[in-house]
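Q: Hi! First time doing this. I have a protein sequence and I read that you can turn it into a structure. Is that right? Here it is:
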Amino acid sequence: MQNALNFLNKSISENRDPAVVKKVIEVQKTIKAREASAYINPELALEEKQKGNKFFTEGMVRSRNDQPCIIIVIV
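A: Yes, that's right. Below is the predicted 3D structure, encoded as structure tokens:
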């Protein structure tokens, strides 16, 4: 994909055709999307989600037990 981008850039330097410019933009978007998807790991994401859920539920239990009692006295 990177080779295609290099050749398209060379083509633009010789003749700046709007169709080629659009192709360059499409190739750049594709390369960026592929690089972003290379970092996605479903197993690691699920593990981190479970850790977050565990901390959230522990925090909910702790906050229920530690709630201060508020007394309002009206005179």
